[in-house]
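Dear Dr. H.,

I hope your travels went smoothly. While you were away I took the liberty of generating a structure for the chain from your last submission, since the lab meeting agenda had it listed for discussion. I wanted you to have the full record in hand beforehand rather than looking at slides cold. The sequence, exactly as received, is reproduced here:
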Amino acid sequence: MPALVRAQPAVPPYRVHDFDWVDAQRSRPVPSRLYWPADLSPTTRVPLVVFSHGIGGSRQGYSYLGKHWSSRGVASLHVQHVGSDAALWRGNPFGVVGRLQAAAQESEAMARAADMRFALDRMLSDETGALGAAVDPRRLVAAGHSYGANTTLLIAGAQVVRQGRTVDCHDPRFSAAIVISAPPFYGEADLATVLAHVSMPTVHVTATDDVIEIPGYRSGLVDRLAVFDAIADPRKLLAVFQGGSHSVFTDRSLTGGAALNPKVKAATAELSLAFLDLTFRGSDAALRRWQADWQPILAKAPGAAFPARADGRTAVSDIAWQ
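The corresponding predicted structure, in token form, is as follows:
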């Protein structure tokens, strides 16, 4: 397994830019934080990940991903969703559950997808100058954790029908998706229909103890596997870590176990880049190295702590596309 403690350079190999954007058409702030690779050649074209946080998060969150990706040449734009961000934790503590439930409504889900589109628009506009000009439009990636994973899937083509109307938030500019701990779509039993239009490479990351639990709601690993299985596009990968927690993928440092937590974070960040190598360069070398390096913390099926799979796959589907 790779060493987790490395000497830190005096100057980080990335830069951080904060944008306090406002979508005037919706009267909605869209604050965002950009992690950008340092010391690039003027002619370098940079892949860009647009990241959506989980419920109660912010643009400051998931910094380990932004730092890791950008230090290896992949920019990461972390979008804050003001209707479901850290403000939910402020105020009367007895009202937290109600605020969480209110933030998990369909109107906010669609607003989050619009936030992602708007942030990408701004990033690619003249407003960001040389940064936006350096983004490679052929290598745009949607990503997110938990509620942000649902947002990512909506951007990637997931559709639901409400009152006879199809809710379609697809942004065709994105060509790959990183889906971390995706909950089921609320009220949707037929996930195959919801996800039928997701037609891009996806990588799915979860853990055997990846459980969301609030009063009146519980979602565990079975739901994460159901989302993965429902996507028909064969260009998909699955990683399941043994143990962990739902919030082990956030910046929290102890959840899921003090020893396992940093390993899951490092493995998730590295898997994302190996997935991009496979997607954009057609190379599975990094993915093969990743599986060998991190096998000790991966769950296996059948006979592991999650439901056995009839096909006997290990936690990473087949190395290369399934």
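Two observations you may find useful: The longest strand covers residues 135-145. Residues 301-315, 317-322 have pLDDT under 50 and may be disordered.

With kind regards,
E. W.
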